[in-house]
Amino acid sequence: MLSDPTLSDTAGLGLVDFTILPHFDGSDAQRAALGRLAAELESVAYGVPDGSGIVVDGLRVELIGDVTAV
Predict the structure, then answer these.
(1) In 3D, which of 5, 3, 39 has the Cα closest to residue 21?
(2) Are the CB atoms for 17 and 38 separated by under 8 Å?
């Protein structure tokens, strides 16, 4: 599921209560991976394509561009 097979720790810094799948292209395979990621981590997962992003301002989360949420 991860793009780097050597990456084993995806915890990050714990600054937000969601995770992202960067370089998301909307393919069936990536949509399935996004769903698995959300289920595995029991949190919201965002698929963020190139040119899109997420802005976090306090408790407000703003999705910029064509971000997919699961």
Answers:
(1) 3
(2) no
Condensed to tens digits (0 to 9), the pLDDT of residues 14-56 reads: 789 899 999 999 999 999 999 998 998 899 999 999 999 999 9
For residue 1, what pLDDT is reported? 46
The average confidence (pLDDT) of the chain is: 89
Helices (H), the chain: 28-41
- How far the first Cα of the chain sits from its last, in Å, is 16
Residue 18 phi/psi, 5-degree rounding, is -145, 170
Phi, psi of 24, deg, nearest 5: -65, 125
Whether the pLDDT of residue 3 is over 60: the answer is no
Domain ranges within the chain, ordered by starting residue? 19-69
